[in-house]
Prior knowledge:
The chain is an all-alpha fold. The chain is built from 2 helices and no strands.
Amino acid sequence: MRHLLLWIPCVIALWAPLYNMTEPTLFGIPFFYWFQLLLIPVSALTIYAADRLRKA
Length: 56
């Protein structure tokens, strides 16, 4: 289970057609950039969750 959690952000980051667009914009920032920035805390949360599952 925890390995699956670690794979999720990796697959999303490598699946370029998912975020290869400029619309919708957020405060004038194209989707490509704000999606990548959003992926950073999401990845951190999944790593944290996988670590907590390992310790449990």
